[in-house]
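Consider the following assembly input.
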Amino acid sequence: MIEVGKDVVVVGGGPSGLAAAVKLAELGCRVAVVESGDELGGILIQCIHDGFGTKLFGKALSGPEFASEFIEKLGELGVEAWTRAHVVRVRRESGSWALTAVSPKGVYRFSCRAVVYATGCRERTPFEIRVGGTRPAGVYTAGLVQRLVNLYGVLPGKKVLIVGGGDVGMIVARHLHLEGVEELLIVFPEPWFAGLPRNVQQCVLDFGIPFRPRTTVKEIVGKERVEGAVLVRVDERWQPIKGTEEFYPCDAVVFSVGLVPNASQLEELGAEIDPRTRGPAVNEYFETTLKGVFAVGNLLTPFDYVDDAVETAFIAAEGVSKHLSGEARRDKPIPLRPGPNVRLLVPHRVEWASGGDITLFLRPYAEKENPKISVRGSKGELYHDRRRYARPSLIERVELPRSLVESSPEGVVVDVE
Amino acid sequence: MKLEGRVRKVLEKYPAYNLSYEIRDGVVFLYGRVKSYEEWVEIGLEVGRIKGVEGVVNRIVWDGYPAEKVKEREERRKRIFEENKDRVVGSYDVVIVGGGVVGAAIARELSRYQLRIALLEKAPDVATGATKANNGMIHAGVEPPRGTLKRKLNVRGCRMYERWAQELNFKYKRVGSLWLITPRTLEKYKRFLPGPLYTLTLKYILPYIVVLKGLINGVRGLRVVRGREIFEMEPYAARDALAAVYVPWTAIVDPYEVAIALAENAAANGVEIFTSTEVVGFLKEGDTIKGVVTNRGVFLCRFVVNAAGVYADEIAEMAGSPEYTIHPRKGVIVLFHRSTGSYVRHCLAEIILPPPPRTKGGGINPTPHGNVMWGPTAVEVPDKEDVSVDPEEVQLVLTRYSTALSEFPRDRVIRYFAGVRAATFTEDFVIRPAKWVRNLLHVAGIQSPGLASAPAIAEYAVQKLREMGLELRGNPGFNPFREPTPSLREMELDEVEELIKRDPRRGHVVCECEMVSEAEVVEAVKRGARTVDAVKRRTRAGMGECQGARCLIKVAMILSRELGVPLPEVLKEEAPLFDGYVRGEAW
């Protein structure tokens, strides 16, 4: 057994985990990163397209470039990182945490006073959107295809159907187009692409990749290998319209139908899970309901920009140092509640007695032009902020003065009106 | 004569059609044409129910009958037959056709004796037919009708499982089943049972009828449970459950694990297993089979066992003893995430009488790995290979079974799949020497409770072979035990530590959802896995909530390395996973 004692252990060496580790080291904590993959960088390793870091560094980097900014800093700061180490067990032991990880080098045991979970998210599967038909070779998720093409040089098929009009789907479509896939079609149930407008232009329109809005896949066809898919038109409520079924011949179907936080380990540990985000419920420093256990990045909710994910890690790092120095918490946390037009809201409560302003991330249900982001307390509106537009595909970031939330101890409701 | 009259009477119910029949040694052959496939099934079943009918060969065609496809298949077989009929692979005492749980069980049972045995399987792996899509329940034997072979072999088979599990080292849990009786149980008969009589019947009469049925079938130990005890046993059982019958013998297994374990042990005891080997015909001398012709060549043989599942009727036909037609019955199963395991302790079912047609026989059961399965459904389908799932059927399963539990996270579905049962029209197991071929043993029509009966089926089949003239001399080298594969997920950490010292791959986690190490994947390949799905069935890599999105490539890379094939040529089940290299070049 290899014993390692630290102040903090970061579980997950993707961008958020790396950012948390860097910030923690800068704050003077003894920190270790535990990564289950072969190398650091997480999902960014396979994201060879650019567009990362526009908010944080003011320039558009590729995924590996963005990751290497942090990996280099980590090295400079002398932070230890273990790769190919998979955390199998976490236990609370008299005020501290004990993590056990398995790796080809042996079994590690980390004891620490705080844990930062940065396990990211996973892709939703065709089963989660109830696609019917068979289960042959040739059905993949988009992230898998991205990995396959960019890191292994292998193509999923020659005629590829992409299901989902989000960013991942569009980016993968462009890669496949450039790598020589003969025929592509993107289908999605929304009236227009759900991803960032810049991706619509740069990934789809610029390359003339065909797409069909208000369409989804009803069935996969093919015994051993995909032979095609049954497409169906959907109405405003995404319900299939009977009689509009159409067979589309293809040899691969790629699903890009949403991301879900990888929160199972936290759930097993007993952390409260928010049914809206399916990630852990957290306080203003992104601490879960387990004291000393923090969650950052896409584990909270999948972010549109890695820059935002990284910001949660920076904020959590400050929380960790508050936790380590034993700062006071409120007797009763102040709940932050989503309003009627808010699909998800992170964080979920204000728990610390003091601290900086509170950063909120929220995603609206309905698209609104010139909307008002409002925060209401028990005595009426406390704050509002006008935006140019708000849409479900974009996470809105809001910064609230702490005193304002504290003035409504029963809780506040955040909405997009 | 009597039989003829009864068959004629059934056909007379369909005056619109010009149907005819022929009876040979108790086997009824039906001819003619009907409008729908449903009618085809209905007529077959009705004739099959006639007492004294030993088999129904339903040669009636229906509108939409895929004549082209059937012809194509026959021509393909003929072509492969011609190409391979002169090339001898080897000479065997027994050739078993079909590598499902039944074929594997018979192979292993025969390996106790000094015999040369070949097991032929069409797919690249064993257990890829009905076996892999089974819900893994080992039934106690309460349900099969009295007087059937099913009943006899089910009751005996269930009792034999524990020993199998010990010898073969597969996961086996005797969880018992709990059959709930609720106000919905006899809803269809409610009008005959006015007022308090309804509840009374449900609470005090019906449970004992079930217990009695068990006793008649030879299943003892059934117990009626009422009131609080139901919820002590099954905390999330339907709140309105009035009574329940507890069956202590019911167990759960992974059906493919059982078949794989059997095949591995059979192979260790000398059985030669040939995968990707499809039977296309027989070489015969009079009424005796001399050789089994496959795409690999001819397997000369003294005896043939037909355990070909949904293809058993075609094998029988090719061999010259058509005695039954398989009418495929599809079942859809919905699988839930492991976190749902805490909601269900027993194999759970809500008794509904009469059973709703599309979900007859299904229920809720835990799996040995802590997942939960709902289903299967039961739908007649014309195509034996139709394992497609209609999303509406998933919904049907979710609706039908949700009344048995008061609370259950129904949204945590991680997969659904379908399999096809090999039902005959007599709806009983057909395990008997062929009527018109001297050395062929039918082991056909093995549908539910086939998995539960498998140990007894194997024993019974070997006994039949002995009666047919196969001499059985004990194999002194027979070893009934199969080495388990150490699984990272189940090991103690100090044990893991030790193993990593010897083999670092033990500590390399390939599948994070199910915690499968590289060493386990390599071991699976060493034990015969050739495809990604074969590795999945042996290790569980890819069975978690991400459904392989993260580990698929890693497993494929290991297969590519271990088998020495390029990554794009690694198979999923029968077809390559990927298409080829980017711009046609290997990196």
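The mean pLDDT of chain B is 95. Ask yourself how this observation constrains the way the partners meet.
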